[in-house]
Design goal:
heterodimer; A: mainly alpha; extended; B: mainly alpha; 5 helices; 84% helix
C-alpha cells in the first residue's frame, strides 16, 4: 500500500516537473514584458525579439544580466555586434562559435598576430579576398559534400 | 494385493528377528522419527514457496510485482528526465558563455565567418 502511494507520488512529481520545465522553456518574456534595463541593453534586438525561439530569448536575457558587469569597451562591442549576430543563421552561428573556440585556444602573442592579420586582410583588394574565399571553399568542398543520403 | 501384504509382513518379520530393543532405545527411535517427520513437513512448504516465487517471477507476475516494476520504471524515467534537463541547461549555459566571449572579443563577428580570412591566415602563417 505504502509502495503504491509512493509510486503514485513519484509519478505525479515526475509529471509536474516535466510540465513545469516545459512551461518555463516555453514562457520567455515578450519584448513588452522585459524590464526597462533589459529593453535598453537588448534594444538592437527589438525588431527580432518576438520571433525568436524561447531558448535564444533565454540566452539573451542571460547576456543582459551579465552586461552591467562588463567593461565599457566590451559593452560597446556587444551593442555593435548584437544585431548582426542575431541575424545570422543557426549554421553560421555554429560555425562562428567553432572558429572562435579554435582561435581562443591560441597563446596571447598569436592572438595579437591574428588581430593584426585581420587588419591586413581588411586592406586587401576585394578581388583578392574573393579569390581567397573561393580557394577556401574549394578546399573544404570534398569534406563538406554530403554523402549520398540513405535516410 | 494380499500377496503383496504377506510379502511385506515376511520382510518385517525377518528384519525384526533377534531385534530386542530396550524401551529407551525404542523411545529414542520414536523421537528421531518424529523429528524427521516434523522437519519434512516444514521443509516442503518452504521449498514449494521458493519454486512458486521463482515461477511467478519468471512469468512476470506475483504479489507486488507490478508496483515494483512501475516504481523502478518511474524512477528511471524521472532520473533520465533530470539528466536531460541538466544537460540541456548545461549546453545552453555553455552557448551563452561562448556568445558573450565572442561578442566581446577583439575581432568582429565577420572575422569568424569569413572563409577568405581563414585562408589568408593559413597562407600567411609560417
Amino acid at each position: 500500500m505504502a509502495k503504491a502511494l509512493l509510486t503514485l507520488a513519484l509519478g505525479a512529481l515526475c509529471l509536474l516537473s516535466s510540465f513545469a520545465y516545459a512551461a518555463a522553456e516555453k514562457k520567455q518574456p515578450a519584448w513588452g514584458e522585459l524590464n526597462g534595463e533589459q529593453r535598453q541593453i537588448l534594444a538592437p534586438l527589438e525588431s527580432d525579439w518576438d520571433q525568436m525561439e524561447p531558448q535564444r530569448k533565454k540566452k539573451w536575457v542571460g547576456i543582459a544580466k551579465r552586461y552591467p558587469k562588463m567593461k565599457n569597451d566590451q559593452q560597446q562591442r556587444v551593442q555593435q555586434q548584437m544585431q548582426a549576430w542575431a541575424k545570422l543563421t543557426p549554421a553560421e552561428r555554429r560555425d562562428a562559435r567553432e572558429r572562435y573556440q579554435k582561435l581562443s585556444k591560441l597563446p596571447p602573442e598569436q592572438k595579437k598576430v591574428v588581430s593584426k592579420k585581420w587588419q591586413e586582410y581588411q586592406q586587401l583588394p576585394e578581388e583578392q579576398k574573393q579569390q581567397l574565399s573561393a580557394s577556401a571553399k574549394a578546399a573544404a568542398a570534398p569534406t563538406s559534400t554530403p554523402a549520398p543520403a540513405t535516410r | 494385493m494380499n500377496e503383496e501384504f504377506s510379502f511385506q509382513n515376511k520382510i518385517k518379520k525377518l528384519l525384526n528377528e533377534n531385534l530386542n530393543l530396550e524401551s529407551d532405545q525404542v523411545e529414542r527411535l520414536r523421537a528421531a522419527r518424529e523429528r524427521a517427520l516434523a522437519s519434512q513437513r516444514t521443509a516442503q512448504p518452504a521449498m514449494a514457496m521458493v519454486v512458486s516465487d521463482r515461477i511467478t517471477a519468471a512469468l512476470g507476475g506475483g504479489p507486488g510485482f507490478t508496483s515494483q516494476v512501475a516504481f523502478t520504471a518511474l524512477f528511471l524515467i524521472f532520473g533520465m528526465a533530470c539528466i536531460a534537463i541538466w544537460s540541456n541547461n548545461q549546453q545552453a549555459s555553455e552557448i551563452e558563455e561562448i556568445d558573450v566571449a565572442l561578442l566581446t572579443s577583439d575581432l568582429p563577428i565577420d572575422a569568424y565567418l569569413d572563409k577568405g580570412f581563414d585562408a589568408w591566415l593559413k597562407r600567411s602563417s609560417p
